[in-house]
## 1
Amino acid sequence: MTFPVLDVRVTTMRWGAAVAILMTTLSCDSIGPEPKPVPLPAVPETPTAPTTPKAPEVRIMPGQIVFSDPFGGIFVADSNGTVLTSLSGGSPDFDPAVSADGKKIAFSSWVGNEDGRDIWVMNADGTNRLRLTHAVNSSTRRSSTSPAWSPDGQRIAFVTSRGAWEHKIFVMNANGSDIKQITDDDMDSLDPEWSSDGNRILFSRPSGYQEDVGIFEMNQDGSNVRRLHNGGGYPARSPDGTRIAINAGRLFVMDSDGSNVTVVMSGFDWSGFDVYGIPDESRKVAWSPDGKSIIFAIGSASKTCYDDWFNADPCGVDLKRVGLDGVIDTTWQIRSAASPVWQR
């Protein structure tokens, strides 16, 4: 029997070195082909929970009309006068004002205040009602009305009255903080409305000495008061800011500086406004977004009012639409409605 011979030459090397060479040779010879990598099993993806689509944000859209019932309640109608929805649910809410982006509505309400009204805000769908002002007790009978948004939506101008007189204009942040009085203590001031740049506020003075009655404009802080018109009334700026409409028992329009006064309508039937209980701000007017027509409230028999003084008298008011040529649109009407806002 023969055996293979391993030729190991260790002539000049030490034994330890020879053993090392032999082991290295044997080790290298014993290595086979390099193994192939074994793939790891795939890790399954964690399933994600289905997401609920976010509900679209409700807004008052351009062309829609927000108004209040003369006896309380805020509603939305389309430009044709078709009532779309109620936002107040029968609450005693009045004189709405819509923010420029259509997301918020400021209004005055008797809710929580037996002695007068306070300023509130709510979302355009009537949710998230928030009270911003708090009337003083019955000894002063303080009431806050006629809110008006600044163009950037950061501030609200409004009127606070004590009893039947002493109407003053205040400005506060949109969350009700930092309330400041900006009109004089000696004269009544009503119906604030901001200029499109937010720098000026239009307002009226309906009572006092004759020289104090009229339509005025002032800086947003109450400074630099300037008379635009000698007569009183309820003013509203046109969408482009170049004209002012005034409801003063007749409807007329003038340039923003008080010049070029033009009578649109005269001889309003305001019999409905003489009945106790209808807010004065029902006489507010609103321009159409295109500046070609105006909606206003006029006395009607839409509702019957019962109280101790007047028994059963017509005391409703309806909204009508009139062109700048004085022609009333007989096909257009919103019954039992006042204090309109025509969103631009």
## 2
Amino acid sequence: MTIKPFMKAGVATVFGGIACLMAAGSAAAQNMDRLAEADANGDGSIEWQELVDMRASIFERLDRNDDGVVSSKDSPSFGPGKGRFGQALEQVKQSSDADGDGQITKTEMLEAPSPLFDNGDTNEDKILSAEELSALRASAGL
């Protein structure tokens, strides 16, 4: 009888581990998709400036009250946008809130590091070539 609870715990652990791997894979895929969106000129490579320009565009969309910072004050009052905004704000805070004050200035967002870009830019020329992007996808298991 004592075996069943352990078996249930073991099965739960396995399924939990699978779920974590799927979530990690999904997050990696989402990050790669976001990075690919930066290819504004459609040439198959991503220049650092294209990434910065994309960040500026995202900042403009998130700064709904045009006060120069992205914070919870920019969140819609109700509806599905409220939840999506909260998720987006948390993601942006994790990568861009350099001073930890809970709001992101445009400078913070534009100057935030991009580990994914940096890891993929193996020749450090501030351009992710098609080959580097392909290698980055492969290293993420995509």
## 3
Amino acid sequence: MISINITYFIIPTIVIILLIIVLIYALNGKRKVDLRVLAVRKKMEKEKKDLLDEMKRLTYLNSNYEQEKKLHPINKETNSNNQKKQADETHLHELVNEKDKLEKERQQFLVKNKRLWEQSLAIHKEKERIDQLKIEIEIRHREVTDSINYAKQIQTALLPQEKVVSEMFLDSFVLWKPRDIVSGDFYWAKQIGDKKIIVAADSTGHGVPGAFMSLLGMAFLNEIVNMQVEIDAALIIEELRSLVKKSLQQNESTRMKNKDGFDLALCIVDEKTMNI
């Protein structure tokens, strides 16, 4: 009987133990399942939250895009507009460079223009100075010319008149053509008694110096024939030579330096003897 009772006791005990073990395994399995479900649920919630955040971000971006689209409409011509804008910027850059180049050229032109203006002023001042000198020279030339013209009147007055010469020598004429206003060439004629004296002379020098010599020669000839008792061609020429040397202070030491004098032809016509 005892053995039966033990068997009855052991079997339920084992069954209970097995149930407990099964229950424990079941509880552990359920717990593991619950933990896995919880982990999956948390992951899904996190992914859901991330998805919501992404949707909010996309919604915000879409809203900004719509606002930007309203402010700056985008159409099919965006690329062409960008290209046109880029071309305009390139053209503007070229225009700026061209403007800088033109500005540099303008500055260079202004510098050259200023230099030319200064040169023009200098030339104008020099022209004024030359014009003033020209006026002064013309005044002095007029004064000298007036003086020479007056000297010509004196020289012409001292020359024998053609009427006197033609009366002394029939069928005669006088050709007197000064190279300048006054002349170093002169002619001289005088009648003393039956003798007629005629002289054609060429003074050293031309113009005013020659005219002075001619006046000196005519004055000496008048002095000689008025003082000379004997009218002789050789004596007249010799006396004229002596007076010239004395008046011009010519001597042997200055003879080579001072050669002022006359080349002349002197004729004496004696109407009484009809000799020359």
